[in-house]
């Protein structure tokens, strides 16, 4: 009898150890941090608002014919309009979808480290707003010749940034893919999987946000790379880990397949919101498109890159549908520019898996109004 009790006791201890290890592993993948601002994102009153901002093209310097003059702050016109937009929209989370910087001088970059300082200033601004945010990269971010891991290292320790150079952290998972020299690719960072929970302290993931690095250019020439097979595997792995939770995807350069579907929608007289002033898509097909059709968990896929184009349409096949959008830029042309209008895309998620979206922008006209362009589009 005593031997049997000892065996039962040992079994219970082993089971407890396994349970602790299992909880520890899950907590390591997606953990709630009680230190400083909570990094966990969650629904409030059954809604969660994401604000997409794209193509800042910021660089803390002014280029003249004779010299590059370093600046200490972001463009004042950008800050003023971001303040207005964040005050009105009150997003739970902000996603920067590439071309966050636009280096003007390779020499000045390597003597003054302008791009690194620009990323710090963007992070300091978000910190001052107590705004949770993340980012992925665009083609122009790579033109400074500063590696993406260095760019990320400048922002990853700020309290309100979610993401980093590690493969996992507080409330995110990441994937890193090193340079394929023969294809002329740059290293792929900024691939993040960020869960949104159904409520505070809950273990139930109601939505997932995924960002995918666009991987920049082919070389030679300015032909754009597609989403790689390895990135597709990351999407599949994270989708399975979260048991097919509804997902928002963000990347910088519009997919070749999306442009094809847009053209098909035009020919079928489908409803398309916004305006098309040109698209510069990836050059090759991507396996991601096929896997999205298999998993059917993507509810919205949003891009930047095509600065003056603003498009939203519904893609629907069989029993799966999603909203697809190209978001116009949030760029100010110069430090003296107070006329350009910054754009963003608000995406309102519902806990039941639904979403709606619209384009928003400050407007400093005579009436000092705030604009929500186009209609609110529902899935």
The level of helicity is 25-40%
- Distance N to C terminus: 64 Å
Mean pLDDT reading: 84
- Structural category: alpha/beta
What does this protein structure show overall?
By secondary structure, this protein is of the alpha/beta class. It has a single domain, classed as Metallo-dependent phosphatases (Purple Acid Phosphatase, chain A, domain 2), CATH 3.60.21. Helices cover 27% and strands 27% of the residues. It is built from eight helices and 18 strands. The chain has helices at 2-29, 76-89, 106-112, 114-128, 148-153, 229-241, 256-267, 287-295; strands spanning 41-42, 47-53, 61-63, 68-70, 93-97, 133-136, 168-169, 172-177, 188-197, 205-212, 247-251, 272-275, 298-303, 310-317, 320-326, 344-350, 355-362, 370-378. The strands form three sheets. Strands 1, 7, 8, 9, 10, 11, 12, 13, 14 and 15 form a ten-stranded mixed sheet that branches. Strands 6-5-2-16-17-18 form a six-stranded mixed sheet. Helix 6 (229-241) packs parallel to helix 8 (287-295). It is globular. The termini are far apart. Residues 1-38 have low confidence and may be disordered.
Short descriptors:
six-stranded mixed sheet, 379 residues, 18 strands, alpha/beta, ten-stranded mixed sheet, Purple Acid Phosphatase, chain A, domain 2
Summarize the entry for a quick read.
By secondary structure, the protein is an alpha/beta fold. 27% of the residues lie in helices and 27% in strands.
Compile the SSE list and pairings.
Blueprint: H1 2-29, E1 41-42, E2 47-53, E3 61-63, E4 68-70, H2 76-89, E5 93-97, H3 106-112, H4 114-128, E6 133-136, H5 148-153, E7 168-169, E8 172-177, E9 188-197, E10 205-212, H6 229-241, E11 247-251, H7 256-267, E12 272-275, H8 287-295, E13 298-303, E14 310-317, E15 320-326, E16 344-350, E17 355-362, E18 370-378
Parallel strand pairs: 1-9, 2-5, 5-6, 10-11, 11-13, 13-15
Antiparallel strand pairs: 2-16, 3-4, 7-8, 8-9, 9-10, 12-14, 14-15, 16-17, 17-18
Helix pairs in contact: 6-8
């Amino acid at each position: 009898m005593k031997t049997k009790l000892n065996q039962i006791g040992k079994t219970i201890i082993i089971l407890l150890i396994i349970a602790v290890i299992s909880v520890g592993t899950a907590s390591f993948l997606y953990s709630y941090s009680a230190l400083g601002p909570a990094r966990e994102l969650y629904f409030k009153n059954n809604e969660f608002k994401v604000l997409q901002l794209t193509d800042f093209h910021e660089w803390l310097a002014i280029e003249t014919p004779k010299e590059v003059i370093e600046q200490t702050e972001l463009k004042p016109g950008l800050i003023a309009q971001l303040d207005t937009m964040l005050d009105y929209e009150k997003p739970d989370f902000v996603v920067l979808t590439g071309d966050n910087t636009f280096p003007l001088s390779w020499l000045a970059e390597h003597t003054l480290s302008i791009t690194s300082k620009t990323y710090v200033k963007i992070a300091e601004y978000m910190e001052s707003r107590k705004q949770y945010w993340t980012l992925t990269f665009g083609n122009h971010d790579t033109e400074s010749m500063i590696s993406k891991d260095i760019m990320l290292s400048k922002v990853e320790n700020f309290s309100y940034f979610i993401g980093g150079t590690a493969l996992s952290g507080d409330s995110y998972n990441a994937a890193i893919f090193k340079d394929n020299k023969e294809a002329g690719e740059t290293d792929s960072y900024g691939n993040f999987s960020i869960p949104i929970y159904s409520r505070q302290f809950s273990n139930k993931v109601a939505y997932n946000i995924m960002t995918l690095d666009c991987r920049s250019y082919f070389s030679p020439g300015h032909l754009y790379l597609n989403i790689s097979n390895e990135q597709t595997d990351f999407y599949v792995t994270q989708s399975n880990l979260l048991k097919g939770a509804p997902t928002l995807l963000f990347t910088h350069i519009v997919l070749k397949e999306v442009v094809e579907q847009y053209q098909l929608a035009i020919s079928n007289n489908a409803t398309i919101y916004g305006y098309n002033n040109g698209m510069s898509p990836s050059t090759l097909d991507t396996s991601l498109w096929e896997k999205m059709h298999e998993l059917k968990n993507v509810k919205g896929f949003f891009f930047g890159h095509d600065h003056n184009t603003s498009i939203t349409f519904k893609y629907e096949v069989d029993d799966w549908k999603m909203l697809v959008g190209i978001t116009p830029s949030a760029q100010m042309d110069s430090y003296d520019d107070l006329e350009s209008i910054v754009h963003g895309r608000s995406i309102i998620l519902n806990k039941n898996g639904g979403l709606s979206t619209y384009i928003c922008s400050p407007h400093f006209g005579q009436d000092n109004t705030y604009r929500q362009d186009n209609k609110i589009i529902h899935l």
